[in-house]
Crossover junction endonuclease MUS81 (Xenopus tropicalis), 510 residues
Amino acid sequence: MPGEITYGRKRPLPACPNPLFLKWLTEWRDSAAEKNLKTQFVYQKAISSLKKYPLPLNSGKEAKILQNFGDSICKMLDDRLEKHYAECGEYMVVLNASSCDWAKKKKTGGKKQREYVPQRRSGGYAVLLTLYRDTKSPSSRGYMTKAELQKEAQPLCDKSFTLTDPNSKYTAWTSVSTLIQKELVIKTHSPARYSLTEKGLELAQRLEEAEDQGRADGFPRQVQASSNEEEEQEEAESETNPYIHGAAHRKQELVTELRRNGVNFDVRKLHIGDFLWIAQEKVQPVPGQLRIPQARELVLDYVVERKRMDDLCGSIIDGRFREQKFRLKRCGLRRPIYLVEDHGSAQHLSIPETTLQQAIVNTQVVDGFFIKRTKDVRESAAYLTIMTRYLQGIYSWKCDRSLRPDASSCILVEFKDFNEGAMKNKAQTVKEVFARQLMQISGVSGEKAAAILEKYSTPASLMSAYESCSSAEEKEKLLSSVKCGKLQRNLGPVLSKTISQLYCTKEPLS
């Protein structure tokens, strides 16, 4: 007789260890299915793999170990996770098992999902409090503009509303879209005006009460709520000091580091470069004269152009990169330095990392600039500090040749003359305008434009040469044998033909 069949207790399903990743993958799958895209099957395979994995994942990159998770999906998860952090603070939200579509269906009368509450000192938190405090002000207009909101909310937020963090392409301002989606903030007019809804006003009031209570208790308090799935140089006896271009706000952090390193510097407007070193003359009173002679300022042969990786990317796209290099070559200082500062991962930029690396190498090999790579602002400040100490040692025993030709001397230009000569919008000669015009043609570098100008210094001289040609074919080959660069290579028939078409075609260019 067969033994009696026994039934054990059914083991409950484990809680979902990666609810956010599962939720986002499901959203992408459903969106692809609505558009009838085959990627829906890719997302479904990834969902199946994720459901089988019992451990929590801290990033999309970690999910690479799972089957059906490629580079594309992992990057999408990382980007979405960064956006979630920007909106809700850096806290991974752990949901109840009932939130996962593979767990048991939620029973009637189950635990009700509580409202969305932004993490303390996150972007959404700062925006809600700022708008609420504005409503309590007697001078309130009932709304705030984007610029006003960013300025007033910044002290309440740990992240910047205008600058991205390393390894991220989001700012604290990203959270505003979530507040609008949650119907906590309303956006109207153009330019945009932001104000609180009734629901947002109620939440902001509770946040303010919690903030007041936290100050009274001596520690910060967070409004208790469980997030739903969507929370988420130099003459003898002279001083050599660096001079800094003071136009950009982000240089303030570097200025702080230089002060910490004991570097004496001045902040002035430079028409080219970001940093340079000046030898200040130490003058002595002249017997019989009432006033002490004015000290001269002589610029050393070093100028630094600082580029953060995201700045470099932007300057390549809009053409500033090539123009700045061209102007640095012509500024009169013989030792230009490109200080390239890393800023998070290059994969978040709009240009491939290989293209950026190639641009940096070309700047050193082709243009002859010295390239210095640093990992952050502190390392950049350390490099500038070391350079200052080095130049002080090099130039401390030298003097201006105009004063003592027989002594150890060097030829330097005065700062006033240098800065005026480097002005971008000063009156230009026909030759300079012609050079800029040629450099707008794809493939024409500064060296190639200079080679053409050596033979034809003005557009009129080039046009005369074209008119003397007997055929269209001769016009196309006119510039092909022009020697360019250090290697004296030919300009080539392709560029020669392009330039001839530009200057010889009377009809509109197609």
Observations:
- Residues 19-99 form a domain with the DNA polymerase; domain 1 fold (CATH 1.10.150.110).
- The radius of gyration is 32 Å.
- Residues 219 and 422 are 54 Å apart (CA to CA).
- The mean pLDDT is 80.
